[in-house]
Amino acid sequence: MGEPRTKVTFGEFWRSVRHRKKRYTHVASAIIESEVFRLPALTTVERIALYLHFPFCVERCRYCSFVSHEGREKDIPAYINTIKRELAERAHGQRVSSIYFGGGTPSLLPAGHLADILSTIRSCFTMDESAEVTIEANPGTFDGEYLKAIRALGINRLSIGVQSLDDGVLSLLGRIHNAAQAKESVPIARKAGFSNLNLDLIYGIPRQSIAVWRETLHDTIELGPDHISLYSLTLESDVPMHRMIARGDVAAPDSDLAADQYELAENLLPTHGYRHYEISNWAREGVESRHNLAYWQTEPYLGIGAAAHSFIDGRRMANTANLDEYLNACLQDIPLPPAFDEIIDPETALSEAIIMGLRLCKGIDPSEIRDRFGIDLAERYGGEIRELVDLGLIEREDHILRLTRRGRLLGNEVFWRFLPHDHELAGALHASPVPLESPSYPPFSKGDWE
Ligand code: SF4
Fold first, then answer.
1. Whose Cα sits closest to atom 1 in ligand 1?
2. What pLDDT digit, counting tens, does each position of 45-91 carry?
3. For 318-370, what is each residue's pLDDT tens digit?
């Protein structure tokens, strides 16, 4: 590969947008508030994607900075009660187009608890008949009986955290499962009735050579999932693997190798029927993740649970990431102020819509931007667009703008140009073209956003 790529991740990039305090206005406490979860009553939104966060895991993986805890299973019943209460308080007749049980490890929840939550959702909200209902599951935490039971509840999409199909890599990551268990989980899921199956994989991992990655990709294709998500390893400074690297026990991730691995996937997956539809996501025709599409299309979503984020009516809000604080608010019936509650100004909203839209391989339609924001993209960003076309990072087909293959690899090189002009990180991003990691946006449940 060409030039070395300094690691500025999409998480850092996006966090920097959110932290632009000058452009966000903290909402005064005079807003309509619910009783315990002091977020605004969501009266104007008709249709939402619903996310529920479960911050419990068997063991913490060495690379993980998500909001999750090991050894706190005893808190699960209280947590279920708390999120049921939060659901009831946030519900105002909205229509739910998708539900996503994320974590953490939601497959640690007994089927009875999931039934309880789904019944609360059905009684508080209006569910689309064809709603996509996803649960994340980690190999080693479920069997066929469990999957059959949760499929019968109406959960119709399973996202399995495979991460790698190489035992050495899985062990380095600190996963609780091995490659054989990950492989076995796919036929078990099919037998249980899951016809919409996603597998998550990570690339850019130390000790994961291109040959190891190629084998993982081939084995994944052989397993025949409907959807494949590929994430680049991102290490926050407080995770064990970061310390292992700092001590010299493990080599640092190689961003050039990660770029090669991404390109390999980009070449290979379409030849096996997987259409690249978002920077980090491939799917067979018609089974793109509807829930995640809501994020990329900057549609409203409601997040429930500790660390969950919401985006409603031009405002972004988050619950506390502190599990005890979250549980106590309910137990003691005390108000829980949001960790943040911000109005997104129109300029930032425009910026988000362009950047998130460009993550989608279909690109953005300037006429939609004009209808939504009253902005002529060619007038507003004509110079930037011409330059990006000249650099081979975006292309124009008819009037649609989209990233080229090179642009997908060097996304930040494109995105910084669409930030509001006084953005303090623009220069750093300009200097830091990188392949982007892309945990399902938005990072509502991820620790690096707290
Ligand atoms: S990576 Fe996933 S399974 Fe591992 S600790 Fe984090 S949330 Fe849990």
1. 64
2. 589 999 999 999 999 999 999 999 999 999 999 999 999 999 999 99
3. 999 999 999 998 888 887 778 889 999 999 999 999 999 999 999 999 999 99
For every residue of 271-336, DSSP letters joined together read GGT-EEEETTEEE-TT-S-HHHHHHHTT--EEEESTT-EEEETTEEEE--S-HHHHHHHHHTT--B
Atom of ligand 1 nearest to the CA of 65: 6
Closest residue by Cα to atom 4, ligand 1, is: 61
Q: Taking Cα atoms as reference points, which of 171, 108, 176, 90 lies closest to residue 140? A: 176
Tens of pLDDT, residue by residue over 266-319, are 999 999 999 999 999 999 999 999 999 999 999 999 999 999 999 998 899 999
Pick the residue whose CA is nearest to atom 6 on ligand 1.
Answer: 64
Q: What is the token pair recorded at 354?
A: 């362009």
Ligand 1 nearest-atom number relative to CA 103:
7
Quote the ligand 1 centre to 170 CA distance (angstroms): 12
Q: How far is the CA of 66 from the centre of ligand 1 (A)?
A: 7
* Radius of gyration, CA atoms only, the chain: 21
SS3 (DSSP) at 364:
strand
Tell me the HSE value of 186 on the side-chain side, using a 13 A CA sphere. Answer: 20
CATH 3.30.70.1290 fits 28-296, yes or no: no
C-alpha of residue 419 to centroid of ligand 1, in Å:
32
Residues flanking ligand 1, CB < 6 Å = 57, 60-61, 64, 66, 68, 103-105, 138, 161
CA atoms within 13 A on the CB side of 299: 16
Nearest CA to ligand 1 atom 2: 104
How close is the Cα of 213 to the center of ligand 1, in Å?
21
- Rounded Cα–Cα distance for residues 112 and 117 (Å): 9
65 Cα: distance to centroid of ligand 1 (angstroms): 8
Show me where the domains of the chain are located.
Answer: 28-296
Task: Output the six-digit token pair for 222.
Answer: 């052989």
* Per-residue pLDDT tens over the stretch 368-423: 999 999 999 999 999 999 999 999 999 999 899 999 999 999 998 999 999 876 55
Q: How far is the CA of 41 from the centre of ligand 1 (A)?
A: 32
